[in-house]
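WARN retry 2 of 3 for item q-0093 after timeout on previous attempt; input resubmitted unchanged.
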Amino acid sequence: MHPLSEEIRDWLQSHADAAGGAPTGYTGSPRPQYGVRVPDLRAFLREWEHRAALDMSTWINVLDDLYQGDYYEERTAAGMIFARFKKYRQQLDFATLDRWLGQLEGWAEVDTTCQSTYTARELLSNWDAWADFLTQLSTDDNINKRRASLILLVKPLRESPDRRLLELGLAQVERLKHERDKLITKAVSWVLREGTKQHTPAIRAYVGDNAASLASHVVREVRRKLDTGKR
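OK item q-0093 returned
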């Protein structure tokens, strides 16, 4: 393990709180928890980042370590670090990103890495490669990667009116809408609800045309968002 990764693990161990952390089963992760509060972990990582002065090679080594960590907070710490280094993230090859996504299990681990990371501009600047990668994720045998194929589009869909994002988002939903695991149905709902910000008529039409094949809670949630603007 890289010394900088070890520093993060040591901090987690020294701040472990058996009474803290999320309720058992809530995150969907099978890993044990240190019980560290998320705001405390984020504050520590901001301070750690300033001291670490990472180059890209070290950044990758640290994330390799953390994404293979035995504890839930090691993998969520990896997602937080991943999101904060935009310059390195933009240079990252898809094979490495795919490997890291394969280390995640449960909505909380997946979403910490994928939810608010890549922007619409980042995806659109390398569109063909991103479209291929996200499509591949949506057909992966690993349900966590299939969730990631949706969650990686949440922020871009919210930010941009570009039709390419809408069309890919709906194509992803179409491929996955028949699954009934909440890991997928909740992600489908999220993608469609976020799509209403820039693509209201298209989302309304899609839900109307596909109400019978979408999970019932997805239809309710998206229609409530369309009608009230509320989640």
